Amino acid sequence: MSKPLVERAPEFKLENFDLSKALPFMAQYAEVDSQGRYLHWSQLKWRVPRNDAKTIWSVIKFKRHLKAVLLPLKDESGAHFSYVVPHSMEAKLHQVIKIAGGSMGAVAGNRASDSIQQRYLVSSLIMEEAITGAQLEGAATTREVAKKMLEEEREPVDPDERMILNNFLLLKYAERIKKQDLSIDLILEFHRIATQHTSENNVTPGEFRTSNDIYVEDEKGDIAHKPPCYTKLQERLQQLCDFANADHNGLAGGLFIPPVIKAVILHFMLGYEHPFRDGNGRTARALFYWWMLKNEYDLFKYVSISKLLKDDPRGYGLSFLYTEKDQNDLTYFIDFQLDIILQAFADLQEYLQHKTQEFHQVVALLEGSRFSGLNFIQKDLLKKGTKEPGRVFTVKEIASTYEVAENTARKYLNQLAEYKLFLPTKDGRTFIYLAPADLKQRLHSAK
Predict the structure, then answer these.
(1) What does the pLDDT look like over 253-293, one tens digit per residue?
(2) Which residues are tagged catalytic?
(3) 335 is in an annotated binding site
(4) Measuring CA to CA, which residue among 106, 143, 110, 138 is closest to residue 124?
(5) Residue 220, annotated ligand binder?
(6) Backbone phi, then psi, for 258, in 5-degree steps?
(7) Residue 106 annotated as lining a ligand binding site
């Protein structure tokens, strides 16, 4: 048997804490190290004197115990899950709340103020999350092909494209029902949308697993997590729903759990319960988004956490393992997710700046010409046409991408054709509009 990726941490029990033995280390060691890291036993034991490692660990665990928030959620043995908010994590949480409570215009530097432009960027970013989320689960379609499929509302041609479309529909659904309470039926509906018309791992959309032959492997191929027995799923998921729906604002003296942390806990617990044969990750991330939107953190419509999880699968997996192998301490997973969210906000800002810069390059080309009065959608189509000469546009694609009526989309495209900026033609029965190879020159010559 190979050595496990993460060693189980020595168990801490308050009644066994030897204060006299721990006293020499009490001033030196806190719940985090000098760099603000919340280290697991597997990481700590190499950083401290070997003979004192377990005593130092007991000191750290004692200080974490004093700050721990005990949750009503339990593992299969009845042990509670908990988490700690050390100062380093408080700072990250503050940044997340400050940014997430703002608007996309603020993140973009108030440049994406046009309502149609904002709607387009929302749609575009949800597509990005849908694609990356599916790639995280193993889909192998290129981003360009996948985005074209979503924009044109084309039917998927293979299982990978189907997974991407399902992810897109799942995120849209999560936004649409954000006012509802969490229920088992809602979790099943999330899963049904995520896995409909797929057959991976013999999954049945919208139905719980009916056996215990499902487990999670680590990067070495060893069993990292065996989920609770399938016969307990209804009971355990009802407890998760009760936790989600409970008021944790702390105003009446009850338990306070910041909404961001609660969203991350829901994400973790769905993965921990692993109630489905496949699609657990997609369902868990949808639950995270749903909770954030429910709590009016609307900026989460624009961020892609899946992209970053895909870029760091090891960190994602370790954050799960550290929690499980240290007495259900969720802090490891929460801290990792806060880092992911902050990076996602930084990526969003970069994306918006890039898109805005591209758009203004086209605006600059049109400045002073007879085309300067074109609306945002038409200017954005010209931007795409200059980047991809020969690109095909359809009425249905434009209506879907920019969330306008098909008659409106047709009117915009026909006007561009009248100006000889797009070339109208037919593909069978469908009217299509081609971006000419010399589109940039045509725009220049209109000055």
Answers:
(1) 789 999 999 999 999 999 999 999 988 988 998 999 999 99
(2) 274
(3) no
(4) 143
(5) yes
(6) -55, 140
(7) no
